[in-house]
Amino acid sequence: MPARCQLTGRKPGFGNTVSHSHRRNSRRFDPNIQHKRYWLASEGRHIRLTLSAKGIKTVDAIGIEAAVARIRARGGKV
User: What would be an example GO MF term here (predicted)?
Assistant: First the structure.
């Protein structure tokens, strides 16, 4: 499963872990991805979204209907 937010498009970033002696090792910065289940009243069903923590806050702010509209506008499947 890709670590990608369906709403914000947030995905892993890449960089280096730098030790005290300044040696570098490659690492991956994963977003805080959660699976959330929402009731979509307009369709009379539950939907399950893969969202980052920021995406969950965005759904709380704009509502699930507007969030689903944004996901579908981006070409995402709900």
Answer: structural constituent of ribosome
The Cα 68–Cα 29 span in angstroms is 26
pLDDT value of residue 1: 57
**CA 1 – CA 72 distance, rounded (Å):** 20
**Cα(23)–Cα(32) distance, integer angstroms:** 27
What does the radius of gyration of the chain's CA atoms come to, in whole angstroms? 16
- Residue 71 to residues 16, 18, 46, 51, 74, Cα–Cα distance (Å): 32, 37, 16, 11, 5
- Name the percent of the chain lying above pLDDT 90: 92
- Residue 62 DSSP one-character state: H
Tokens, residue 10? 């947030």
Domains of the chain: 13-74 (2.30.170.40)
